[in-house]
Amino acid sequence: MDFILPVLAVPAIGTLIGYLLGYAAIYFKVEKDPRIEAVIALLPNGQCGQCGFPGCAQAAGAMVRGEAPVGACTPGGAALAKRIAVLLDLPPDDGEESVPQVAVINAQACDGCGRCQKKCNFDAIIGATRQQHGILGDDCTGCAACIAICPQQAIELRADPQLTPSAAKPRFDVREASYV
After folding, report:
1. Single residue among 55, 70, 97 that ends a domain in this structure
2. Hey, is 126 helix, strand or coil?
3. Most buried among 102, 116, 119, 152, using CB within 10 Å?
4. Taking the chain, what is the end-to-end CA distance rounded to the nearest angstrom?
5. Is residue 25 in some structural domain?
6. What is the CATH number of the domain that holds 50?
7. What sign does the dihedral 112-113-116-121 (CA atoms) show?
8. Do the Cβ atoms of 74 and 142 come closer than 8 Å?
9. What SUPFAM superfamilies would the database entry show (predicted)?
């Protein structure tokens, strides 16, 4: 009979702790703004820091709270700023149109040290140690993280030939667009 009390006490204590944790989860629940998650999904999430925030989640929170402009993400460019403005129901930033840029490696100056490849958050730089490196233009966001780390100054930003318009095109009217 002495062994029944300890055997029943363990499940009873477990049940009590379970109820307390469930109550604490409901009582201390923190509501998140769904707009922050939507802006995070739009951002490139490379944590490059060009916007002045340590990561894209912090930048998205600042954009939703109005502490940062919708065009703060330099790698995203004007197109991303317009999408975020539509999402947050803000007027579009009609400031200076930025041209999307990508990094380009000077073949004669690259010694293949590999520092740029390690620094790239988007895996846009390819190459082996002590061999010339290259940039995957489709993956490069133009964040310029590789430029600062290159000891030979062999990397520079240039206008992205795939995204730079060669002829005048009709302007995109943000008020008529809808993004989900």
Report:
1. 97
2. strand
3. 116
4. 64
5. no
6. 1.10.15
7. positive
8. yes
9. 4Fe-4S ferredoxins
